[in-house]
Each structure stands twice: as C-alpha cells, then as structure tokens.
Amino acid sequence: ELKVEQNPLFLSMQEGKNYTIYCNYSTTSDRLYWYRQDPGKSLESLFVLLSNGAVKQEGRLMASLDTKARLSTLHITAAVHDLSATYFCAVVVASGTYKYIFGTGTRLKVLA
Amino acid sequence: DSGVTQTPKHLITATGQRVTLRCSPRSGDLSVYWYQQSLDQGLQFLIQYYNGEERAKGNILERFSAQQFPDLHSELNLSSLELGDSALYFCASSVAQGAVYEQFFGPGTRLTVL
Lengths: 112, 114
Known about the structure:
Chain A is mainly β.
C-alpha cells in the first residue's frame, strides 16, 4: 500500500525559531509537491520538486527532495505568525498512469 | 484568487440523491483534477482529465463519475450519496497533463449529505 507520512502532525513553535517538517513515502517517486492550506480555504501550491537533490526556496520556506531516502523536508526559517497553516506534501506515483498521494498534513501554529 | 472557479460553494442534500459539481479551469489550462478532502480520509485524488480525456484515476468510487467538456470545464457527478460522501471537493487545473506542472486549486465545494 502506498503511504505518505508526515511528521509532526501538529507543530506549535515560537516566532523566530527554525523547524523542519518531514515527508516520508513508501514507493519510488521523483516528483513531490508541497501545499499550504489555511483554515477553511483551498490549497496553495508552494513547491514542485522534480528530481533527486532538488532544493527550492521561497521566503522563509525551503523544500528538498531525497528520492533515495524517499524523504522530503520543508524547512522553516525564523518563523512568523503568517506561516500558521496546514502543510501537505503529495507524492506523484507513475504506475500506468499518475496517482497523487497526499500526506496527512502538518498543522503549524506560530506563536507570537 | 487562483483563477479556478467552482460552483456551487455549498451543497446540502439527502442520502441516495445525485449531485453535480462544476469546475472551470484557469484560462489556458487544459488539465483538470478532482480531489476530495474529509476528516476521515484526508486529501484524496479522484481523477484527472486532459483536454477532454481521462488521464489518471485515483480513489474514485464507482458511484462517482466525471467528464471534461470541449470548453474545458469539468463536472463531477456523485450519485447514490451516502453520509460518508460529505466532504470538501476541490478541483485544480494545470497547463498540461504531466506531473511536473503546478496545480492551481479552486475554492472548493462543501457537500453535506444528511
């Protein structure tokens, strides 16, 4: 069974601190998405990672992909309150056709 | 605003009924995806269409069907509704069909089955 696991599920952190969200997946994939979802809102695409070793950065967020370890990380640098949201990773699996498997999500709360 | 529109925003219906959810992709996008988000199942990919043809299939129930029309809008049909079908249904669009393109999500349709 294909599994995408995120940890932690919940994260409460102080403003100004750094932290990393982990996304582990159980099958071969070299394509991974990160999304942000605010409460009651839709999903916003953050990063598309397309190859082993890919690293992308936008503001205080940086995502990386290690396809050999089947692991992606989303690193938060000097967190601010506006980053409070739920973050999802999604793995793309090609098995005859494409399937998009989402992680459980990490609910991040940044405390002022 | 992603440029993807979905109607209706909210839908309340009874078990056993059938509903149709509508999605208009961003201008120029040929690919449409449907997702279901519920507390029980989390986010689930349902189905993808590209330029009118089905391209990928996820955990879509047999009671559900979708299509993409020549003007590229898409409809998701849910029939014989059950309580467990209550969820947020999102559509997303991207410019092409490969799994390398950023997807832009619509605001969602909240379906409540009573």
